[in-house]
Amino acid sequence: MVEAQENNPVIPRTQRKQVNILIIGDHLVGKSSLVNAFCKPRNKDPIENTIGIDYQLKEYRNLLLNIYDCSGCPEYKSIRESFYVDIDLVLVVFDVTNIVSFENTQMWIEEFCKVSQKQCEIVVVGNKTDCIGKRKVTETEACIWTAMKDMEYYEVSAVSSIGIRNMFESIIEKFAG
């Protein structure tokens, strides 16, 4: 049974609108940590590398979020691509301390768009903002790039959970209506 949340009536899972969220990006940019920080904020256990795909189910307001966390390793490309169908939202994650992961953002978007047959929102996420002094991609640089692509951009720290809840709530609110 689904427990009622503050100011929210109990809605059975079968009556919730499902939103399929795909999370892609280079290996070791913090995709799994980002998902964990949103889905299991109290869990501070170490996160292992994703092998293929990891799946999380999160109930949020009247929505049932199916979150697919994809490995960034090249050897899992065919597995990853099999999940590119019927996606409502894509989060392309890069590491702000790794310029190559930012440069590869375009490649991830192209890989997804080449396989997916469905129009969906693509959001770019700069992770690891807690690594002060190690930053290689400025917020301004990322904002300019995403604005040219007409995409939203968020900066977060999955390790310290800064910006995670706000980012997900802002993005997911569009599907709640």
Automatic annotation (TrEMBL):
Instruction: Give a single Pfam family match.
Output: Ras
InterPro entries with a match to the protein in the record: P-loop_NTPase, Small_GTP-bd, Small_GTPase
Q: What SUPFAM superfamilies does UniProt report for this protein, alphabetically?
A: P-loop containing nucleoside triphosphate hydrolases
Keyword line: GTP-binding, Nucleotide-binding
Keyword Nucleotide-binding included in the entry's annotation: yes
Q: Does the keyword GTP-binding apply?
A: yes
Q: Which GO terms describe its molecular function?
A: GTP binding; GTPase activity
| Stored SMART domains | RAB (SM00175), RAS (SM00173), RHO (SM00174)
- Family membership noted in the UniProt record: Belongs to the small GTPase superfamily. Rab family.
Q: What is this protein called?
A: Uncharacterized protein
List the source organism: Stentor coeruleus
